[in-house]
Amino acid sequence: MELIEYLQSQFYSKEELLSLSGLRQEEFANYQNALVMPKASYTLVLGLQCHSFFGIHNESHNQEFYAKGYVSWLKDLRLKNNPKQIFDLFKTRYTDTIYQLKSLGHSCSGIKMNKGLTTHIESEWKHFIDGTYGLCTKSGLPEDIARKELASLVIKELTKEGNLSRIGLQKLQRAVDLLESASSLFAPHERHKSSRQILIHDIRQQFNLR
Q: Do residues 151 and 186 touch, judged by C-beta distance below 8 A?
């Protein structure tokens, strides 16, 4: 029951998403088939068994759950004419967020966030459409994806150094806080092995952060 309560509180069911977005099932399926709408973050396969005077009856139902931010993403889809425009929207929002974060002092030397940013975003788009980021970020939207990825890279880069200076620890604290602001809570059965556990909780304990 804890898993179901988590999904119902943190995500929209497919039915809720369609209702809030004003979409028909066919329109939604078309977006997913065109690879511009992410797949479900979680899918529950529910088995039901009913006992009555008439005997035993079995049923199976699938229920899909989507990040709540996808209501706004679906609204954006309606304003675009083709998959390239939609990808360009994702790319622009991702890139703008990275540049904004860098201007605030969040930066790393890795190629992904520098010369390789365009190639990296193409890879991120695939994970976005697969539903990965609907699971591990709060909104599932490009801004949170960019925050999560940059913060994760900064944390990994800094912690490779072992002993950090005061400035290094301050930078690490800011990166951990940034990651927490973008990361989902994760489902109860996933938390112990999640990036939130490894890069937030464990790092805070290891380096005595807030």
A: no
